[in-house]
Design a protein that fits this description.
The radius of gyration is 28 Å and the shape is globular. Helix 6 links the parallel strand 4 and strand 5. The protein has about 500 residues and is an alpha/beta fold. It contains 17 helices and nine strands. The C terminus is likely disordered. The strands form two sheets. Strands 1-3-4-5-2-6 form a six-stranded mixed beta sheet, with helices on both faces. It has a three-stranded antiparallel beta sheet with strand order 8-7-9, covered by helices on one side.
């Protein structure tokens, strides 16, 4: 029996005696190869984290005025923006011990194991200070207490969180221990975890702007073969809203596109095809549409394209296609924004709705009836109209009161339901205002397309012939200033 039980009881063999020990991966001074040079597009976050690196490397200089190193820094942002990469870069720059663990690794089936692992983690960090303790996916451990178990206080996760709170409140920052954590769900974290003295600073790691995307692309383009004349700014213009992980995937997809066509270098057209694959899905040329359905799709997409090219406050058209895609789309119109936008006016929202409904309007004008192909367009237009009324106060009949809360940007709709706090009469006013905005936008789209009926038919015929066209192939899709002709007065119906 001693021979059989010895491996089970020995801690060095990973037996029962070691179940309460921390599972953090420890990286020595040269174990982390990532530096700030490998992180691009998040300059503000790097500047805040550079202070931590300075404190760890030269505490005397940074603390000469009496300032202390922050106990904890919480990296907050959408998935894929580089929070974990930033934490590793801090370790690589500072050259100290780096303890890396995820929030889910603290919790086991045995009661008390999570709290024991938290104690062991901070004990190891104190013994090897200066050090950085990085907890990834903090929301798995730091969820607000009392919301999961009725009565609260007896859940294993809550005991683990209580131990983490005690450890963060008790250690001395002068010994050189910094706690970094990352989450994309900050709204569900326990308030005691976010107070000053535990996580002193929250660092936002947001989606990069246009210049940030250029910097990120330059980092990833070094890993593939690219043509010398490749315009990185044009790729950044095609990818608004992309995170760092999305851009890394885009570069890889573009390299695969170039490989499939047997090229020796990646060019801009490869990146355009990669963007289309990521946004709209892969082409499904094997899905054969009946001739009448194919013609209806061509008119539908040309309606979108003509409306977007006519209206002056929408993004310009980049490409129109009637090739079915894997996500279920029978065709698509790709618009390329000219720059990043942070504010949207009422007229811009109305023009966006008009462009969304122009595909359905084209079907009604040409065929006298509509089809189910505009279901996604209707959903998007309805969402724009409802937010305009309930969040932005853009309806004179409803007023400027905020009737619905903002949807969580990182969580979708969130996990908590918020009941309506306005009367049924107000709800009716909201519904009427939303319907009125949609009807006005739809009528504006019909008026616009009827004024350009010749372009609509000519564009649909060309689209049926080539399947994919650009403004260079069909000049009426170019902006009015590029075509040197006056724009159709489409805003009068708005």
């Amino acid at each position: 029996w001693m021979f059989l039980l010895r491996p089970m009881m020995a801690g060095q063999h990973g037996g029962l005696m070691s179940i309460g020990r921390s599972r953090a991966k420890v990286y020595a001074e040269k174990g982390v190869k990532v530096t700030f040079a490998d992180v691009a597009g998040v300059d503000e976050a790097k500047q805040e984290l550079a202070e931590v690196v300075g404190f760890l490397k030269d505490p005397a200089t940074y603390g000469r005025l009496g300032a202390r190193i922050p106990k904890g820094l919480l990296l907050v942002g959408p998935p894929g923006t580089g929070k974990t990469l930033l934490a590793r870069a801090v370790a690589g720059e500072s050259g100290v011990r780096f303890f890396s663990i995820t929030g889910s690794e603290f919790v086991e089936m045995f009661v008390g194991v999570g709290a024991s692992r938290v104690r062991d983690l901070f004990q190891q960090a104190r013994e090897q200070a200066p050090a950085i303790v990085f907890i990834d996916e903090l929301d798995a451990l730091g969820r607000a207490r009392g919301i999961d178990v009725p009565g609260g206080g007896h859940d294993e996760k809550e005991q683990t969180l209580n131990q983490l709170l005690a450890e963060m409140d008790g250690f001395d920052p002068s010994v050189g221990i910094v706690v970094l954590a990352a989450t994309n769900r900050p709204e569900i974290l326990d308030p005691a975890l976010l107070r000053a003295g535990r996580f002193d600073r929250q660092v936002l790691v947001d989606r990069p702007d246009r210049q940030g995307r250029i910097d990120i692309l330059n980092v990833h383009l070094k890993k593939i073969s690219v043509a010398p004349e490749l315009d990185v700014a044009a790729i950044a213009a095609l990818t608004p809203g992309f995170t760092g992980a999305d851009l890394a995937n885009l570069v890889n997809e573009a390299a695969l596109v170039a490989t499939r066509r047997g090229a020796s270098a990646t060019v801009l057209d490869d990146f355009t095809q990669a963007v289309e694959r990521i946004v709209a899905g892969a082409e499904r040329r094997g899905r054969l549409l009946k001739p009448d359905e194919r013609e209806r799709v061509a008119y539908h997409e040309m309606g979108h394209a003509l409306a977007a090219s006519t209206l002056t406050k929408t993004d310009p058209v980049h490409k129109v296609s009637i090739i079915p895609r894997s996500i279920g789309a029978l065709g698509y119109t790709l618009q390329r924004p000219t720059d990043d936008r942070f504010l949207i006016t009422t007229s811009e929202l109305k023009e966006r709705m008009t462009a969304l409904l122009a595909g359905r309007a084209a079907e009604e004008i040409v065929y006298g009836e509509v089809s189910t192909g505009a279901a996604d367009d209707l959903a998007k237009a309805t969402d724009v109209a409802r937010q305009s009324v309930t969040r932005f106060g853009m309806s004179a009949s409803v007023g400027q009161a905020v009737l619905e809360e903002e949807k969580q940007q990182w969580l979708g709709d969130g996990s908590r339901l918020h009941p309506k706090d306005y009367s049924e009469a107000t709800a009716r006013e909201v519904d009427l205002a939303v319907r009125g905005m949609i009807d006005e936008a739809y009528q504006a789209a019909k008026d616009l397309l009827q004024a350009r009926m010749a372009d609509l038919r000519a564009g649909a015929r060309l689209l049926l012939e080539r399947e994919t066209i650009t403004p260079a192939d069909f000049p009426p899709l170019q902006r009015p200033e590029a075509r040197k002709v006056p724009a159709v007065a489409a805003q009068s119906a708005l």
